[in-house]
Write a structure and sequence with these properties.
about 30% helix; globular; alpha+beta; 2 helices; two-stranded antiparallel sheet
């Protein structure tokens, strides 16, 4: 994506979660949480 686009938009549940330059969007904590979940600490 980084080499193909200058602007990226991420949707979650039909809403825009983040938009902008690809590097900024994929580093956005909301995007990471929505698509990868949150880290759980070991018990």
């Amino acid at each position: 994506l980084m080499g193909l686009s200058r602007h990226l938009m991420v949707l979650s549940n039909g809403r825009v979660l983040a938009a902008g330059d690809p590097a900024g969007v994929i580093a956005d904590p909301h995007v990471i949480e929505a698509y990868l979940g949150t880290r759980r600490s070991a018990a």
